[in-house]
Amino acid sequence: METADKRQLQLERNLRLAEKRLQKASDARRSLPPGSTWARVTTANARWASAAEERDRVQRKLDDHKAASSKDGGT
How far apart are CA 18 and CA 34, in angstroms? Predict the structure, then answer.
């Protein structure tokens, strides 16, 4: 049981970090000045998309872990 709790805490920590990276990428995207080059805009969009996908992956793992824990009688 303790291992499951540690796993959940780690996943929650990873989710917070992924959300911070997503916010940073979003801020960078938003701060691009008008007239930015196509390359800068594309790079900012790609970084944001990558961060969003990572956040979604971690969220899915956390949700799956919680569902498995509740089935097993855990937290």
Answer: 28
Q: Which residue has the higher pLDDT, 1 or 53?
A: 53
Contact 55, 19 (CB under 8 A): yes
Note whether 4 and 75 are within 8 A (CB). Answer: yes
Dihedral, CA atoms, 33, 40, 52, 55, nearest 10 degrees?
-100
Which DSSP string do the residues of 9-38 spell out, in sequence order?
A: HHHHHHHHHHHHHHHHHHHHHHTPPTT--H
The single-letter code of the amino acid at 24 is: K
Contact predicate 47/63, CB 8 Å: no
Instruction: Kindly report the pTM of this predicted structure.
Output: 0.84
